[in-house]
Amino acid sequence: MPSAYKKYNCIIVEDEPIAAEILENFISRDPELNLIGKCTDAVYASSLLSIHDVDLMFLDLHLPVVKGFDFLRKVKNPPFVIVTTAYHQYAVEGYELDIADYLMKPIPYERFQTAVGKFKHLMEAEDALLEVSERDFIFISSGKKQVKIILHDIFYIESLREYIHIHTKAGCFTFKMPISKIEETLHPTMFTRIHKSYIISRSKIEVKSANMIQINGKKLPVGRTYKALLEL
Predict the structure, then answer these.
(1) pLDDT of 9-32, one tens digit each?
(2) Which CATH architecture has domain 2-124?
(3) pLDDT tens for residues 99-118?
(4) HEC assignment per residue over 58-109
(5) Which of 30, 133, 168, 200 is the most exposed, fewest CB within 10 Å of its CB?
(6) Would you identify the CATH topology of the domain 128-230?
(7) Nearest to 98 by CA among 195, 27, 13
(8) Rounded Cα distance, 156 and 69, in Å
(9) Nearest 5°: phi and psi at 203?
């Protein structure tokens, strides 16, 4: 029965009719997604966001008049965003804007499902309480569960809006918590903030340059204001 499903309101911001139609088709296959509007420009998208409670926005970057990222920077309390683009180079710019995922056009249905799965995971993550027990591990309480995180197993911590992803040898854990809260509990000799969205384990650095750190094969950006901390 449809009523058994959670419903997430979403909008499509896309000026190519065929691309918008493909996304609409994909959305219609997911009973948890409720498409409340399609728009071809940022002005119409802004009015939809002001009228409706939107959880997810599929945003094309190449819009007429106002480009996707410029529009997103102006939105107050934006919903989660899945970017749709034909251009690889825009992914780096999106680090600053808490993008849930990127879909490269043409979009395969399986890749669409993966992106929506990431979004749902973020929506469902519970508020987390952090307990510092001993130096080599921490407990994070999420709902009724207590998750033990071994500090030496952490590769890096990623912030996405009000959530954090803790990437470890055992997998990735998501909690609803500001990155500043966990930063306070981590010893600066072991962990360093390199960006407003990233804390890294110093011992796990594989490649280091002025603008990038590679950990576990993942390239992470170094924010201008954090470069001095890396030299400590």
Answers:
(1) 999 999 999 999 999 999 999 999
(2) 3-Layer(aba) Sandwich (3.40)
(3) 888 899 999 999 999 999 99
(4) EEECCCCCCCHHHHHHHCCCCCEEEEEECCHHHHCHHHHHCCCEEEECCCCH
(5) 133
(6) OB fold (Dihydrolipoamide Acetyltransferase, E2P) (2.40.50)
(7) 195
(8) 26
(9) -70, -15
